[in-house]
Design a protein that fits this description.
DNA Polymerase III, Chain A, domain 2; twelve-stranded antiparallel beta sheet; 3 domains; alpha+beta; 25 strands; 6 helices; single chain; about 375 residues; eight-stranded antiparallel beta sheet
Length: about 375
């Protein structure tokens, strides 16, 4: 195998594919990057048991072939090369590869390419095409609400529902719930749902960084999801299990509704939460009144903070307390200027949604405290 290509392009592709490699690979071969050179094209592949990422780049291929090279050494080396082009070829001993760039020459010991599994099939049944901006918005507005507790894998993923022309993303950790729905054109008639690993969606966002509009092609095959973005393909196992009926936790009606400026409330919660006893689980108390929302918190070690924000409320006054992070997460993910907060009592689920953005809502469970 022998090829020449742009150093920066190869380095970027390797960094992209490398994200599929687990920090503790199940077998040594999964710590390698698979390079396949043919027809003036280079395929860069990496995988573990649950995810595979493949990238295609242009290359001047003098000799077809493939190698598996340790990912860490290869990616670290590429990141430091100064020359615009890099020349890579497999040595006659078949056990090492030479990397030439400018006046530099390096040799790296190879792994056995015969031990590397074939890249998963990328031909799916159900297929859906979503624009990059819509996909980023769906992920951004739900992924923060998922759980990071790996002992509850069901809630570390995002529910993906397709019904007709509507696509809904749902994230929850059982204490909060984010729901975002969009209408998608050019979708097949068949409806389906799946739970997508949060790790996969993070990599999708990382690859939606082009200055030009991109399409995200999503398909399913044998309980795997295949996502294609330009020349990059990401294949992942789905999260197994049945997602709970999230609609049941949404109260059918609310007795109290208040409208508030998002930036003002976000700033108040952020500042006042500094005075909570525990930074990882900061509790803020919120008093909703006719024309103001009072945010306060205190601790014996720090002191106390209190700030009021103007609002317009329909219904009675109410005292309610929250995990401050759960409130801040939704406020910073709303693009509108104002939000509506809907409540019933101090312990029932609360709904927060933007005033000018349809089909996006957030449900959060209050904390039981003494006012």
């Amino acid at each position: 195998m022998r090829f020449t290509c742009k150093t920066s392009v190869l380095a970027k592709a390797v960094q992209t594919a490398k994200k599929a490699i687990s920090s503790n690979p199940s077998t040594p071969i999964f710590s390698g990057i698979h390079l396949i050179a043919s027809s003036n094209q280079l395929e860069i592949q990496a995988m573990d048991l649950n995810m595979a990422i493949g990238c295609q780049i242009e290359a001047n291929v003098a000799e077809n072939g493939n190698i598996v090279i340790p990912a860490k050494y290869f990616s670290d080396l590429l990141a430091t090369l100064q020359s615009e082009e890099v020349n890579i070829y497999k040595n006659t001993d078949e056990s090492t590869v030479t990397i030439e760039s400018g006046k530099a020459n390096f040799q790296i010991v190879l792994m056995d390419e015969n031990d590397y599994p074939a890249f998963p099939s990328v031909d799916g049944e159900e297929k859906l095409i979503i624009s990059d901006e819509v996909m980023k918005d769906l992920i951004k507005k739900t992924i923060y609400a998922r759980s990071t507790d790996e002992t509850r894998p069901l809630f570390t993923g995002i529910l993906f529902e397709k019904k007709g022309s509507n696509v809904t993303f749902v994230g929850t950790n059982t204490h909060r719930l984010a729901i975002k729905t969009v209408e998608v054109e050019n979708s097949e008639e068949k409806d389906f749902s799946m739970i997508i690993p949060g790790r996969l969606l993070t990599e999708v966002v990382n690859n939606l960084n082009s200055d030009l509009p991109q399409s995200v092609v999503i398909s399913l095959h044998n309980r795997q999801i295949i996502i294609k973005i330009g020349k990059t393909t990401i294949v992942s196992s789905l999260v197994e299990g049945e997602f709970p009926d999230y609609r049941r936790v949404i109260p059918p009606k609310f007795e109290i509704k208040t409208k508030v400026n998002i930036k003002e409330l976000e700033g108040a919660v952020k500042r006042v939460s500094l005075f909570s006893a525990d930074g990882d689980y900061s509790i803020v108390k919120i008093s909703v009144k006719a024309a103001e929302i009072i945010v306060n918190s205190s601790s014996n070690d720090v002191g106390k903070g209190r700030e009021s924000v103007s609002c317009v409320t329909e219904g009675a006054s109410l005292n309610v307390a929250f995990n401050a992070r759960y409130i801040l997460d939704i406020l910073k993910n709303i693009d509108a200027e104002e939000a509506t907060i809907e409540l019933n009592n101090s312990l029932s689920p609360v709904c927060i949604k933007p005033v000018s953005e349809e089909n996006y809502l957030y449900i959060v469970t209050p904390v039981r405290v003494v006012f």
